[in-house]
Amino acid sequence: MSSAALLFVLAQVAGAASGRVVVESATTCPTAAEVEERLRVLLPPLAEGAAPERARLAVEDGALHVRLLSADGAPIAERTVTVTASCADRANVVAVVIAAWDVQQRAEHVDDPSLPHARPAPPSPPTVVAVAAPPPASSRPRLELAFAPGLAFADGVASPSGTLTASLWGRRFGGRFGVFGLLPHSDGIADGSARWTRFGATFELAARATGRLGRLDGHAGIVSGAVVASGAGFALNERTGSFSPGALAGADWSYLFGHMFAGVGASLSLYPTQRLVFSADSPVARTLPHLQPVVDLAVGVLF
What own/partner pairs with CB < 8 Å and gap ≥ 24 does 125-134 have? Predict the structure, then answer.
């Protein structure tokens, strides 16, 4: 018989008697019903005429807080449990904790459950695996600062770039403000050369998914930038600049180390058509690329 079928049969056999502990849960992971189902297997039935104890579950600062109260409401024990697992595993852990308190308080042996025509071994207690958990989620917004050196690609040529970002996050969504720039990109045109660069600021909205493997952020917004260019080797060398608005979308992955984090990211910027015109024997022009992909490494801190 599978462990799931065994647990179901045991719950049905014990279900005829009143539970020794009534569970009140302020969270759906686990629910009160899930914990009570497991307690019926772990604890003997309530004696006739006796009042049940009460267990209260609540989520506090990202952890599961368990309190056991006597029938008259007097506190017996409490504990904060941090388990990064499924709701079923959380229910198993909470049931084992409550059952241990009940046994210690009453100083009595918990008999093994019995079935007609069979006496199976009691269910094995759940295995609790301790893992490095991210800082508990807070109801107040969290500020993150990050610096991301990277490479920006233009016409297949990579240029070093850098971005400084400030983000304000709620539980799942946030806003980002960043400033960026890339080292000048040099192109040969006619008998001369042109050097140009972009820099500016970004304004974005972002969404976040968090798991054991880290955090994955998606973000998109607008770019308020500028292009600065200069010529060399022409009849008349000039330096010029112009406004360069655009749009930006990207994704970042990061992993927390306390209040620090590190990760990688990629983004793609889209700019309107822009041309650089230089004076030579006859004017020559360079059309700047519409798309600017960027890959980067990021380090940052949480406040």
Answer: 125/92, 125/96, 126/89, 126/92, 126/93, 126/96, 128/83, 128/85, 128/89, 128/93, 129/84, 129/85, 131/84, 131/212, 133/62, 133/82, 133/84, 134/210, 134/215, 134/256
What are 229-244's pLDDT values in tens digits? 877 766 556 677 789 8
Query: β-strand 53-60 against 21-25: which pairing, if any?
Result: parallel
Whichever domain contains 230, its CATH number is: 2.40.160.20
74-83 confidence digits (pLDDT tens): 888 888 877 6
Q: Is 242 in the same domain as 183?
A: yes
Residue 256 falls inside a structural domain: yes
State how many domains the chain has.
2
**Which two tokens mark 273?**
């058509």
- Which residues touch 117 (CB under 8 Å, ≥6 apart)? none
Q: Give the residue carrying structure tokens 């992993």.
A: 255
Burial bucket for residue 181 (CB in 10 Å: 0-12, 13-18, 19+) = middle
Please say whether the beta carbons of 27 and 35 come within 8 A: no
pTM score: 0.52
Q: How far apart are CA 23 and CA 39, in angstroms?
A: 10
CB atoms within 10 A of CB 56: 17
Are residues 290 and 149 located together in one domain of the fold? yes
- The pLDDT, as a whole number, for residue 73 is 79
